Amino acid sequence: MPDIERDRHSGPVPEAAWAADAEARARGRVEIFNATRPNGLDNWTMDVDQYELMRQHILGMIDEGAGPDGTIKLQEVVDAAQDRYGDHPLFPGGRLTNYVRYTKVDLEARCEVERVPKSSPQRIRRWRPDD
Length: 131
Description:
Elements: H1 15-26, E1 29-33, E2 41-47, H2 48-65, E3 72-73, H3 74-85, H4 97-109, E4 113-115, E5 123-126
Antiparallel strand pairs: 1-2, 3-5, 4-5
């Protein structure tokens, strides 16, 4: 299989980031990863329940809503999250754009999803290892 072009936001992140995440999870938080940062961390955490709901939403949207090329527009994922979870008790502010976008960046750094390079509007897909 030919090499797959990677966006610079794709992971992996340093092992120290994973250690910081393990410590955060022990406190009910998730350390948000960002592969564009030297230490792999965005230096803030999210509630583990909020994170897991957004993670499942993003992965589910890709798995169920992607086109034949395996991609989906990020804005579709954001809009669907707002419709589904805008009044969810985990998100008392009701605005989910940042939760989706930051979780997506984190999932890129964890090599679960990836941006389609040079796509506009931005599209995402499940991460595919180079084979």
